[in-house]
Amino acid sequence: MEVFDIDHGSRPSFDSLFKDVTDYAKFKREFFFRLLGNQGGDEITSTKEENKKSDADNKRRGAENEVEEEEEYGTWSKLPMDLQIEIIQCISSFRRDYRNLRDVCRSWRSLVPPLRWIPDSKAIRYPWLVSFQIEDGIFNFYDPTSEFTYEMNTEASNPRILSSCGGWLLLVEGERSIYMLEPFRKMRIDLPLLPQHFNILNGHVFKISKTTKSCHFTRIYRTPSGQLGFLKFLSERAAWTRYSTNDRSFLPSWNNLVSLHGYVYCLDYRGKLGRFQRVGNITEWVILNESQTLCFPSKLWQSFLVLVSFTNKLMAVFVGESGGWVHVVNFNFTTRKWQLVDGLGNLVLFVGRTSIAVEAEEDRLRNKIFFPVFKKADGNSIIFYSLESGRFHSFGSENSCLDFHDWKDFKFLFNSTWIQPKLIPTFR
The whole model's pTM is what? Predict the structure, then answer.
């Protein structure tokens, strides 16, 4: 199955392409709107004379029967070969039209090669939300900037999504099977089986080293005996190791962990920030803001730890029950305290099992937080929070809400995470 991203921009002029075709205005309008569906681009405007001719054509077409109409449109596939090739070259940079072009007929499809994915570390600026649909057995990739969903079939049966890093997913199937999956090229790397009777779903970090070509995984959890446990995997050793401390006050939350400068950071349900490091045979664990007490307006629903990688800042997003309130804080490593922030500036945050911070190029994305939450009434409308308005919004709607329940019906995609694709589609 092919996966596409969306390019936005102005369309090239078609005047030179069809200047030798009779009834130019009628052909251009019908060809563009019926063949390419007028999807994702600027509407073609006509001159005054063209509009008059188009109106006359519309009246005439209304009186024609369906057979005559089909015969008329069927002549499109009989365009001269050199003109077909020129059209393809002209719109090849608009990938949605490129896909539609392949769907016209067999002859056109034979002229348009399928898209291939090639490596590119700076290919797609904003992350996609990936989720697994059990009923269909497919991965859904949702692009929040264009509100398009791309489906991809893999050999995965019923994976639980843990995290992502560098375009790879970390997945679990069954009780002990855990593996890495590069979904776009369908590359899979199996890791050693998990320890028996071990719940792996919450509180973890997955990181791929660009320099050593290795990966590591850490999970912080509460053991049955009440101790604080650490599960660690290093690809160099290809084995799982477990450590523990006697700290019984720290209560690891559901949120993701963050790896920074060799340390692993973790939030608890009260906003405490813990730091873990394993040096030789010594386990280093400390609660950095031990003396700080955070006061929330009401019950805390979710918390997300976010690393702003290009500035090495550590941020957290605290969300009240049903989104009743949202607090964003920045950690001051000098004072060892969380500091409340009023805005994100040019940043946009994507929070979930893997949380990602990006410098937004578009004004409509700046100072916003995207959650893996959708309006049920419209599955393609993701909910985001604006720090400027202090309300929840969705693209394509003028309505805003103070919390999720104001929309009456919403869904939280628990089996999902944000992924930063490291490939771009090409047709060369």
Answer: 0.73
